[in-house]
Amino acid sequence: MKILAFVGTNADFSYNRLLLRFMKKHFKQMADIEIYEVGKLPPFSVDTPLSEQTEVWKLKQKVKEADGLVFSTPEYDHGIPAVLKSAIEWLSYKTKVLSEKPAMIVGVAYGRQASARSQVQMRQILISPDCNTNLIPGNEVLIGNVRNTFAKDGRLVDQEAIDNLEKCFEHFIEYIQIFQDVDKGEHNMAVKQPTISDAYIQFPTGRLSLKEVQQIFSTIPFEIDLIDSTNHFAWFSDKPNREHVRNTASLGETVQECHPPMAVPAVMSIINSFREGKKDVVTRPLWMNGHRSLIQYYALRDINGHYLGTIEFTGSVEYILNLFENGAWSKDATTGASKNTNDSAPEEEEPAVDASTGASESSDDSDDEENPPVAADERPAEETDATTGASETGSVDAEDNTADASTGASETDD
Questions:
Q1: The whole model's pTM is what?
Q2: Number of domains in the chain
Q3: Tens digit of pLDDT for each residue in 299-352?
Q4: Are residues 170 and 214 in the same domain?
Q5: Of the candidates 139, 162, 187, which is a domain's last residue?
Q6: Above 90 in pLDDT, residue 174?
Q7: pLDDT in tens, 253-308
Q8: Domain extent for 293
Q9: Any long-range contacts for 268-277 (C-beta under 8 Å, 24+ apart)?
Q10: Residue 363 maps to a domain
C-alpha cells in the first residue's frame, strides 16, 4: 500500500517531519510511506506560468498514484501554516486529485494541546467541496510537549503516543482497504459483465460484440489514448505493459492537467492543428524505456470531417527494426527466394515503390550522383504524408533527441 505523507511546514527543522520519518520506518511492514516536502512548491497563484508549475504537476501525479494521504501539521497562530494551505490550493484549484482520496491528519506541537486547533482547521479544509477527501473520522493523533516525547535522534519515545499512533494508523489502513475493495468489485464486475454484455456493434465491414471490441483493444500491439473534442482525457486502451502508464484517476482531466506543464504548448499545438484542419497526423520516433518506439497522433473525424478528438498510438518498433536489420526483407515476399539468385552482376533495380500509395519514392528515373535520393529524415518539410495525404509543413514536432517520452514535447527548458 502506498501512502503519500505531507510535511506541513517549510521550516528547516520540524518535529512534524520527524514524526513522518518515524512513521515511515515504524510502519514499513504495513505501507510504503513517501514523505513530501510542501516547501518545494511555488506559492499558489492562479497567474503562475505553466513553465513554473512542473513541481505542482509532479505532486498531482503522486497524489493520484497514492492509496492514501497523511497530512502532518504544526500549529501557527491557532491555524495551519501558510505553506500547507498553499499546497492544498494547488491540489484543489481546477483539479479533482483529492476527491474521494482517503486522508488522515497527524500533528506535533510544543504545547500541551498539541496541534488541536490547526487539525480542526485542516479537517474543515479537507472535507470542503473543492477537496472532498474521504477523511477518516475520529482517530486523532495529537502529540504535544515534543521535547519530552522525542529523543535527540528523532525517535518517538513516549509509549502512550506510540500506542495511539499505531491504533490510528491501523484503522487508517483498514479504512483505505474498504474503498479499495469497493473499487475492485466494481472493476471486476465491469470486466466480467459489461453493461450490455450481449450487444453488438454493426460496422459497415462487419459485426463485433462488446466483448470482442474490448479484447481487440487489449490485444493489438500498440496502446491507444483519446483526447476528446473538448480537450479532456476520455479513454485509454487497457493494454498490458504500456509504454505510457495511465491511471483511471486521470480520466476527465484536461490536457493541461494530464501533461507535464512544459509539454502542454506542444500538445495543444498538435490538437489545434487537427481542430483547424491543418494536419491529420503527427509522427514522432522516440527512445522510450530503453528501446525505440513510435508515437503517432491522428485527428479523429466523423464521416463529414468534423473534429471528434485526437488519438495517440504508441508502440515499440524494436521487433520490426530487428527483422529489417536481420534481412527479413532481403527475400522475395511471394517465394522466399533471394532477389539475387546467382553471382552475376545484378540487374538495375527498379525504383522503390511505397506500399500504401504505389508511388515511386524516387523523384525521377536518373542516376545523377549530384542529386542522390533524400533520406527519410532529410525530406523537405512540404513532403506529403503517404498514409493520409496531409502535408507535414509547419510540423509542431519537437527535436527527437530532446522530446518528452510521454508527449514528444521538449523538456529542455525545464
A1: 0.64
A2: 2
A3: 999 988 999 999 999 999 998 999 999 989 986 655 555 555 444 444 444 333
A4: no
A5: 187
A6: yes
A7: 899 888 889 989 999 999 999 999 999 999 999 998 888 999 999 999 998 899 99
A8: 200-336+375-414
A9: 268/231, 269/396, 270/297, 270/310, 270/396, 271/227, 271/231, 271/310, 273/394, 273/396, 274/299, 274/307, 274/310, 275/299, 275/307, 277/305, 277/307
A10: no
Structure-block grid coordinates of residue 148:
519530552
Identify whether residues 146 and 205 lie together within a single domain: no
Residues 269, 397 within the same domain = yes
In angstroms, the CA 101 to CA 238 distance is 23
Backbone angles phi, psi at 207, to 5 degrees: -120, 140
131/223 same-domain check = no
Query: The domain spanning residue 404 has which CATH number?
Result: 3.30.450.20
**What is each CA distance from 25 to 19, 21, 150, 155, 333, in whole angstroms?**
10, 6, 15, 10, 62
350 inside domain = no
Domain final residue pick, 187, 213, 237: 187
84's grid cell: 500547507
Kindly report the length of the chain: 414
Rg of the Cα atoms in the chain: 28
The C-alpha cell of 324 is what? Answer: 529489417
Nearest to 17 by CA among 84, 121, 108: 108
Residue 194 domain-assigned (yes or no): no
DSSP secondary-structure letter at 403? B
C-alpha cell at position 95: 483539479
400 inside domain:
yes
Whether the predicted pLDDT of 229 surpasses 50: yes
203 burial level (CB within 10 Å; 0-12, 13-18, 19+): exposed
Question: CATH number for the domain including 59?
Answer: 3.40.50.360
Query: 56-84: per-residue pLDDT in tens?
Result: 999 999 999 999 999 999 998 889 999 99
Which residue type sits at 406?
A: S
b/e 305-315 (16+ beta carbons within 10 angstroms → b): eebebbbbbbb
What's residue 349's pLDDT? Answer: 40
